[in-house]
Amino acid sequence: MKKEEVIQNTTAFVQKTLQNAEGGHDWFHIQRVLKNAREIAAGENVDLFIVELGALLHDIADSKFHKGDESLGPKRARAFLEGQQVDEEVIIHVENIIKWISFKGGNENQQFSSPELDVVQDADRLDALGAIGIARTFNYGGHKGRGIFDPEIKPNLNMSKEEYKRSTAPTVNHFYEKLFLLKDRMNTKTGRRMAEERHQFMELYLKEFYKEWGADPENPFN
User: Which CATH architecture has domain 3-213?
Assistant: First the structure.
């Protein structure tokens, strides 16, 4: 099967699968990540076919919405790609991208690396930053029933992976516990450049947020 046909079929599969997904992890998120990945890949020595498959399938079964099951995404991707007669080597690579793409909190070491993962990971992290990143963050916080901000609850910057997954802290804390950390974890030159601009926008946003709240922008937590 031609690569272009596989990408077309994968696009249709993902779009159908995620048609009722939470707003920050839906088909539009996948579209943005794919666009970011293609832009970043243009400056990298990578297999674009693997990059595109990884971007399309990276959230096919996000563990956050499947009782924490981190194995389901790779399994679903494999089943689909086997049906498309994709080479086993490519399937394994895409499985590893899905397994290792996410920010998991804590200090867990990433046990798989490749230029293709670097690109897709940067592309996904970019969508967690900037104006869209802010919108996604509050959308997910509302989806989980979390408060917006509580100056009495300080961000926890030393959480383990399990503590991060179980956290019910107000949404603003997520800026400190994840979003502001991403800029320095980008893998590619293009990713770092794009992340820096979005990072600055988020800092500006929170300053205005604290001003309107009546909190001290330099020391918002009591």
Answer: Orthogonal Bundle (1.10)
